[in-house]
Amino acid sequence: MKEGQKGVAIDDEDDDDRKPPSPYTLGAIYASLGLIIGLNCFLYSVGLQNLPVSTYTLLCASQLAFNSFFSYFINGQKFTPFVVNSLVLLTISSVLLVFNKDDTSSSSTAPAISRVKYIIGFLCTLTSSALYGVVLSVTQFVFTRVVKRQTFKQVMEMIITENVVASVVTVVGLFASGEWRSIDREMDAYRLGTVPYLMVLIWIAVFWQMFSIGAVGLIFEVSSLFSNSISAVGLPIVPIMAVFFFNDKMNGIKGVSMALAVWGFVSYVYQYYVDEQISKTCETK
């Protein structure tokens, strides 16, 4: 009888563990993440406005380093020599760009960037990269410790709620700052015309939603660190494309910075490969 009562108690405890949190709790968590994402988008916009595309992209590589750091404390991510190597290389890659003096005139068609604006753009982009690392790690924590029932429905609920809140924050900031008055002027100044301008905005929104589904889905299936590493695959592509489409100059510092960033990314991918091989070996035994 005692064993039966004990078994019932255990079943009740398991039911409590599987019980999903209240909608209010999830709503508060998702809304908070949405606020951070909205702030993150603003900081990224400031960075992109004040930095050349290649410099901006290479700075964004520090996302993986920040994500590794926060994953260690929030998700219990283990640091191996390859992960540490990736962290160090990506950090050095970002720091090197501070000493780049050719960015103020890196484009023959773009206006010169003042040193003050360059520093502001640098700091905003670096801060937004850190925030993005926090969001990814917290998202994984929410899936594993709070939501518990990891389904496609939960993934979509998180994405929709976060993006709605982030969109509201962005729109409020747009009108509060008065920048909405310059939209018509910006649209008219677009060299390809008004319709292409609108199409660019629409397709950017569509592809970012696809990116959100993929990024959160990878967190759901694997981990936040793996999701971030996959998003970094485009790192060596964008600076090269910027040379052809935006007339950016790929000088020595940027070249070394990009090489270190790619090296850091490959280092982490190799660590993931090693982990997969060890996992398969353990399963066969």
Automatic annotation (TrEMBL):
Record's bilayer topology term: Multi-pass membrane protein
Disordered: region residues: 1-20
Entries under Pfam families matching the protein: PUNUT
Cell location: Membrane
GO cellular component: membrane
Main location: membrane
Record's keyword annotation contains Transmembrane helix: yes
Annotated transmembrane regions: 24-46, 53-73, 79-99, 119-143, 155-176, 197-220, 226-246, 253-273
InterPro entries: EmrE-like (IPR037185), PUP_plant (IPR030182)
SUPFAM superfamilies: Multidrug resistance efflux transporter EmrE
Superkingdom, taxonomy of origin: Eukaryota
Single GO term (MF): purine nucleoside transmembrane transporter activity
Keyword field: Membrane, Transmembrane, Transmembrane helix, Transport
Family: Belongs to the purine permeases (TC 2.A.7.14) family.
Name listed for the protein in its UniProt record: Purine permease
